[in-house]
Design a protein that fits this description.
This protein is mostly helical. Helix content is 53%, strand content 0%. It has four helices and no strands. The longest helix has 12 residues. It is globular, with a radius of gyration of 11 Å. 19% of the residues are buried.
């Protein structure tokens, strides 16, 4: 997942404004208490950040890969 795909998935799932709030303010337990913005800046892959965020806010698994973003191959 590219950063642009992460941003698109955030916008599609949460809306532009709320998505920005989540990436800036929500502490992600699976990422050692970093926010999504901090994790991305630290070099954590966008897909890992996306999945951690989905888990943290209880996004249904059927939507974990974002609109228009294919599921990873097994």
């Amino acid at each position: 997942m590219r950063l642009s795909e992460f941003r698109t998935a955030m916008k599609d799932e949460f809306g532009e404004a709320y998505g920005r709030v989540l990436t800036r303010d929500l502490v992600l337990t699976p990422l050692d208490g970093q926010t999504a913005d901090q994790a991305l800046a630290a070099g954590i892959p966008a897909r890992e950040v996306w999945l951690a965020l989905c888990a943290e806010v209880d996004v249904p698994r059927s939507r974990w890969y974002g609109a228009g973003i294919p599921a990873p191959r097994p």
